[in-house]
Amino acid sequence: MKIIEKITLIIYSNIILIGAIIACLAIFGWIDIDVVQGLIKSLLISETSSKIILVISIAAILLSIRCIFFDPVSKQEIKDKQGILLENENGKLMITKETIENLVEAVTKQYKMAKEVSSTVELDKENNVNIFINLVVSSDVVIKDLTVDLQNRIKTKVKETTDLEVKEVNITIKKAIQEKQNKSEKEQA
After folding, report:
1. Which 3-state string (H, E, C) describes 86-124?
2. pTM exceeds 0.85, yes or no
3. Domain annotation for the chain: domains and CATH numbers
4. Which of 5, 41, 132, 145 has the greatest CB tally within 10 Å of its CB?
5. pLDDT by residue for the chain (189 residues), tens digit each?
6. Burial letters for 154-165: b for 16+ Cβ neighbours within 10 Å, e otherwise?
7. Chain-centre distance for alpha carbon 178
């Protein structure tokens, strides 16, 4: 149905464009209104062109009503955006994005160097899992080592837990903070 809607939108846009150009030309006096009126009259009187105009008009009216009153996003598309639906002979299983985000945050919180974490999960049309993590780390961490290890552990944990392949784990280090020293450490310094 999307192809039909795109074609109709192109036709509708061209009709509006032509109408706007004709209106501008008539307003500026560059074209005679009687010529435009005669052209429209001849198009509507001719049997073939009037049928074509009628079909295009009815299609535009129906699509306009559909777009105004009916949501173009189906319930299945909404469910697909919420997570991944797995099916087997016993039934169905919906693994939500929130579940995967919770797994990511649980793995990340195992690292003492990771102070704050937030994650989002995106699913593409082939149900590939892409994970985006924002992370605040302590200033004494080796960021490259931490992120490589974290990416591998997240991919492994998601695969073990959900049996889903993770395509990418993208990590953004928002900032590196210095940890507060204990009183005894301060006294020794």
Report:
1. EEECCEEEEEEHHHHHHHHHHHHCCCCCEEEEEEEEEEC
2. no
3. 2-69 (no CATH), 93-177 (3.30.300.30)
4. 132
5. 567 777 777 877 888 898 899 889 988 989 888 888 888 888 888 889 889 888 888 877 887 787 777 766 655 555 556 778 778 888 988 888 899 999 999 999 998 888 889 999 988 777 788 999 999 998 888 999 999 999 999 999 999 998 888 999 999 999 888 876 554 454 555
6. bbebbeeebebe
7. 37
